Amino acid sequence: MTVPQTEAELEKGLVEQLVSLGYDYISIRNEDGLLANFRQQLMLFNNIPSLSDREFNQILNQMQKGSIFEKAKTLREIMSYTKDNGETGYVSFLSKGNTKEEWCRNRYQVTQQITMEGKYQTRYDVTLLINGLPLVQIELKRRGLELKEAFEQTNRYERHSYSTGIGLFQYIQLFVISNGVNTKYYANNKIAARTFKQTFYWSDTSNRLITQLREFTYTFLDTCHLSKMLSKYIVLNQTHEILMVLRPYQFYAVEAIVDRVKNTDKYGYIWHTTGSGKTLTSFKASQILTGLPNIAKVVFVVDRKDLDYQTTKEFNGFSKGSIDGTANTKSLVKQFEDANTKLIVTTIQKLDVAIKKERYKKVMEQFQDKKLVFIFDECHRSQFGDTHQRIKKYFPASQLFGFTGTPIFAKNASVNQTGKHTTEELFVECLHKYVITDAIRDENVLKFSVEYINTVKKKEGIVDIEVEAIDTKEVMEAPQRLENIVDYIIANHNRKTHNREFTAMFCVPSIEVLITYYDLLKKKKDEGKHNLKIATIFSYRANEDDKEAKGFVMDDEELLDEPETLYKHSREKLDDYITDYNKMFGSNFSTKDSLSFYNYYNDISKKVKNKHIDILLVVNMFLTGFDSPALNTLYVDKNLKYHGLIQAYSRTNRILNELKSQGNIVCFRNLKPATDDAIALFSNKEAKSEIIMPPYEEFVKEFNLAVDDLLKIAPTVDSVTCLVDENEEFAFITAFRQLMRLKNKLEYFSQFDYADLAMDAQLFDDYKGKYLDLYDKVRTSQKTEKVSILEDVNFELELIHRDEINVAYILQLLAKLKGETPEEQVRLRKSIEDLMAGDVGLRSKRELIEQFINNNLLKIKDEEDVEKEFIKFWDEEKLLALKQLSLDENLDGEKLQKLIGNYLFTEKEPLRDDIIDIMNDRPSLKERKSVAERVLDKIKNYVDTFIEGM
C-alpha cells in the first residue's frame, strides 16, 4: 500500500526542484538572518561595494513605512539615501523593463521554515527571495486537505506576524498554496481585500489547467517567468489600493497582442467570455503597447458614452492619471495633438466625427501614416457599420484589435445596411480564446441554474417544455398570464435572492409589456402584498421591434438617445416611474433632456450594484455590458437567442462570495432550445452540463449522501461535544460545512422542501449550533494561544447569516413568551435559545438575553412592557460594560466613546495610534502592538455585543 506523501516530503521535493531551476538555497532561521541576507543581496544587485550600518538602517527605515499596497509601490521605485560621505546614493529592489534581459537580471534564492516572533511564533513553509526580499510565499498542506485551509493559514500569518519587526514579509507580492495535487496563486493584499474566490490556477495557452505542484513550479516559478509576472503582470489598482495579478488567459492574451504588434501589421481579436476581466486585460495590453517606441498612439474604443467614462475611471484606477476622458470630440483631437498623451479612451462615435469633420483635418491627417493601435471594446457591437470601415481607410498604417465575450459567426450574424458581417471578417484571427466552459471550470464565473416555468396551458398529453409551441402575442401578453408571473416573482423572490442579499433584473419583450408589469407590481405593493424596491428604465427606436423579432438583445446602451425618440405615452409613463424612483431615493431625475436621462441611467446602475434596488425591469437596457456581482437572478419573459441570450444570462454569474453559488435564470418562456443552441455555439454541444447547474433532484441526492457522511462522524448532536481531539473536530467541521454549501444551493430552488432531505430543519439547526460552538472555541483560543489545525479552517459563516433574525425579532418572541402557558413557554424558550445559538450575530448577545429572561422577564406584568424593560436593561448593561472596559485597560472614558462613535460612523477599524491615544498610561514601544491589538479586540467585542444587530 502506498503511504500518502507528507507535508514535509512535499516541501523537501519543492525546494530541490527550485534549486534545479536556478534558485540558490540559503538557510535563514529568523529575522536577523533575513536582514543580513537582504543587505548582502541589495549590495550585489545594485553593485554597491558596501553599505554601512547607518546607510542600511536609513533604507530599512524608509522600507518600514506604509501599507502592503504602499510597500508594493516602494518595491517598484528607486530609493535614495544619504551616504556616510554626504553624497546621495540610490538603490532599486526589482529589475523591470520591457525585455527579457531586464526582468531576468534579478537574483533568486529559496529558503524554508523561517521563524518569526509576532503575536505568536510562526514558521513559514517555503519563501522565495528576489534580491533578498521575500516576494513569494508558498504554503503547503498535505494531500487530501482543502486548499482553502492553506489560504486561511496565510491570512493567519498576516494577522500574527508578517508585520513583525522591520516588516519585510509585507513585501510579499504573490502567495502560492498547494496540497501537491492542486496549486493556486494570488496577489497579496490586506486581509479585508482577500477572498478565496480571487485565487487562480495557472494554465497553458490552450487553457489546460496546471494543478500539480511539480508542473506549476516548472512553468510559473521559473525564475524569468516569475520576474515577468512580478514586474509586468501585477497591476497596482490605485482606486481600491489593492494588487491585482493577471490570470493565465489574461497573460496569454496580452502577450499575443504585444507579439502581433511587435512582429506584424496584422489585426486580431480576443475571445474571452463575459465576466472574465476584459477591462484589466485590455488595460495591461494598452499600457505595454504605449511603451513601444514605434507606436504613436494607443486608442481604446468603446461604443457608448457611459463606457467611455467608466473605462477611463477604471484605467486611471489601474494607473493614476494614465488618461484623460474625452468629454467631446474637440478634447479627443487635443489628445491626438498632445505628444505626451499616448493612451486615449474614446467612443467610436467621437472618433468617427474626428475623422469626418473638416475642422479637425489638420490634426488628424498627421496620423494617417503613423502606426496607431486601436483596441475595440466588445467588438461585436457598432463596429459592424460604416464607421469601422472609415477608421480602417483613414488610418492605413494602423492595427485593429477587438475584445468580445460572444463573437459573431455566420450563424448568429444579423443584417444591417452594409450587409452581414462576422467578427473574423473584421478582425481576421482569434489570438486567444477563453470560453464560458473554461471560466466556469476555473471558478472565474458561476454556472447558471435555469428554471423553466410553464405559464400557458398546454394541450392534453404534452408534458415536455421542448414541444411547447404557443408563442403568440395574444397568449403571451394575456393579462392573467402576466399577473400569474408577477405573483410567482413575489412568492419566490426572497428564495432566489437569499432574502434579498442579492438583486434581480426582469427582461420583457416590449415597453408596452413592461408598463403592464410595472403597474401590476406597483398595485400589489400598494395593496401590501410585497415591499420590493422596483425600478425601470427604457427608451425606444422604430427598429426595436425588428431586432426583437429576431431574438437578439439590442445593445440598449445604443438606446441612450434623446428621450424625444420615445412615443408620447411611453415617455409619460417613464416620467411617472422616474417620479416613483425620485420619491424612493430623494432624487430629481426626469426625461426633460438627455443629460438628466443619462444621469438617471447612471444612478440606476449604481443603485443596482449597491443592492438598493430589488428588481430592475428592462426591455434591452442593462442586458449587455452591465457588471454587478450583487445581481444573481434574471427573470425572463422575452425571446432571446445566441449572443443576446448568453449576454443576458451573464449578468447573473459574476463571482462574489460563498453565498452566491450560481446565476439564477427563471424563464417564463420556452427558451430551452435557444439556450442549448447558444451554449453549443459559444462552447460546444457537450458543454451543457458544465454550464447549467444540475436539477434539484441531484442536489437532494448529494445532500443526503453528505448527511450519511456527517452521521458517521457524529451520530447525534450531543456526540459532537464528545469528539476526542482536533482531528475529529476538523472532520465534523468539514462534513457540516459541505452540508451548508449544499443547502445553500438547494434553497434557491422554488421546490425546496425539507421533506425531501435526510435531515429536517430542527436537526440541521441543532448541528449548526454545535458547529458554531467550535467556531467560538477557535475564535476564543486565537486570543490566548495558537490552535493547531482548527485555526486555519474557514467556517464560511456567510452561509449561516440570516437577516431576518435580530434582537427586535427576539423581543417579539419574548413578548409572546410572557403571555403563554407554562408548557408553551418551555417550547418557546427552547426555540429562542436555538435561534440565538444558530445565528452568528446573536451569539455574542446570548448570555445577556438569557440573563434578562432569567432575572427580569418574570417581573414584567404586561407583555407590552417587555421591549421597554429590555431596552432599559440593555442600556444599563452597555454602560456597565463600557465602564468595565475603561477600568480594565485604564482608558480615558470620553475618548473611548468618541473612538467607538467614529468607528461606527466610518466603518473603519481604529488605527493603532488612535487606540494608544485613548490610554491613560502609554505602553512602551515594544508593547504597543500587542496592547493595541488586545484593546481593539475588546472594542470590537463590545460593538458586536451591544450595538450590531440592535
Could you write a compact summary of the structure shown?
With 950 residues, the protein is of the alpha/beta class. The protein has five domains: 7-230, tt1808, chain A (Alpha-Beta Complex), CATH 3.90.1570.50; 248-434, P-loop containing nucleotide triphosphate hydrolases (Rossmann fold, 3-Layer(aba) Sandwich); 448-457 and 470-691, Rossmann fold (3-Layer(aba) Sandwich); 696-799, Up-down Bundle (Methane Monooxygenase Hydroxylase, Chain G, domain 1), CATH 1.20.58.910; 807-946, no CATH class. The chain starts with 6 loop residues before the first helix and ends with a helix.
Summed over residues and divided by their number, the pLDDT gives a mean of: 85
Neighbour order of strands in the largest sheet: 1-4-5-6-7-8
- Flag low-confidence runs: 459-470, 540-566
Largest sheet: 6 strands, mixed
Number of discrete domains: 5
Please give the share of residues in helix. Answer: 40-55%
The fraction of residues in strands falls at 5-15%
* CATH topology (level 3) name of the largest domain: Rossmann fold
By CATH, the superfamily of the largest domain comes out as P-loop containing nucleotide triphosphate hydrolases
CATH architecture label name of the largest domain: 3-Layer(aba) Sandwich
Overall 3D geometry? globular
* Radius of gyration, in angstroms, nearest whole number: 31 Å
Per DSSP, the total helix count is 37
**CATH class bucket of the largest domain:** Alpha Beta
Total number of beta strands: 26
Cα end-to-end separation: 58 Å
Helix/strand-derived category reads alpha/beta
